[in-house]
């Protein structure tokens, strides 16, 4: 069953599913505030795995790659609300409230937390929009987004170091980044942006670092990991091919035979 995802208003999205659902890789271009209404979200990212349980809020930082698995609650339903906190809205809010950030956030990746009563009641107040009993005008939608920012900062003032840091992404160590993120099946353009480079700059630096093109390196790196999992961990390709960034099994089997000259069952 496909996951249901409704855009309630401009920056508010509602996700609902009734059985376990594996999401696609996602490039997160903007911060977002999420709330787990029911069920659990298991999120995989470069720093590890994060489990978001029911009635938990999460602040997801922009410019990262995430893969999720959605698990319905015992009642049989998974529900998740996400509110995009885009750069333009945050810059306007910072200007109006004279917010200046003079240091970067140095906390851990896991930014999920138990919301206070005010923030929890805020998400409950969105129910009429989810149930389509009420429609948000552009002005009301803008006010609801601003309310979310206010309540988020009340809940944890340190979050302002994340939300209002408008500095441009710096160039990341390419070798380290790619070895942490090679399994995400996203475009080369997304990898370029995440490492703080233009597409042409990324390709140039990549060739200088790895002596090959991004696509060739990604395929070889994924196949090497697959070979290790099959030979040393006795895992079956059906259990991991998606996690390594392959879109389908037939492509994986063909590429594996091309690289190693043998099938997976012959190892």
Sum this structure up briefly.
The protein is of the alpha+beta class and 267 residues long. 40% of the residues lie in helices and 22% in strands.
Please give a structural write-up.
The protein is built from eleven helices and eleven strands. The model has no long low-confidence stretch (mean pLDDT 90). The chain folds into two domains: 4-163, Jelly Rolls (Sandwich), CATH 2.60.120; 174-266, Homeodomain-like (Arc Repressor Mutant, subunit A, Orthogonal Bundle). The two termini are 35 Å apart. The relative contact order is 0.12. The strands form two sheets. A six-stranded antiparallel β-sheet has the order 1-2-10-5-8-11. The protein has 267 residues and is an alpha+beta fold. Helix 9 packs across helix 11. The chain is globular and about 60 Å long. The protein has helices at 87-96, 117-124, 127-130, 138-155, 160-163, 174-181, 188-194, 199-210, 214-233, 237-240, 249-260; strands spanning 4-9, 12-17, 21-22, 26-28, 31-38, 40-45, 48-52, 57-60, 64-71, 78-85, 112-113. The longest helix is centred in the last third of the chain and has 20 residues, at 214-233. A hairpin with a 2-residue loop joins strand 1 and strand 2. Helices cover 40% and strands 22% of the residues. This is Helix-turn-helix transcriptional regulator. Keywords: DNA-binding, Transcription, Transcription regulation. Residues 172-267 form the HTH araC/xylS-type domain. Pfam families: ExsA_N (PF22200), HTH_18 (PF12833).
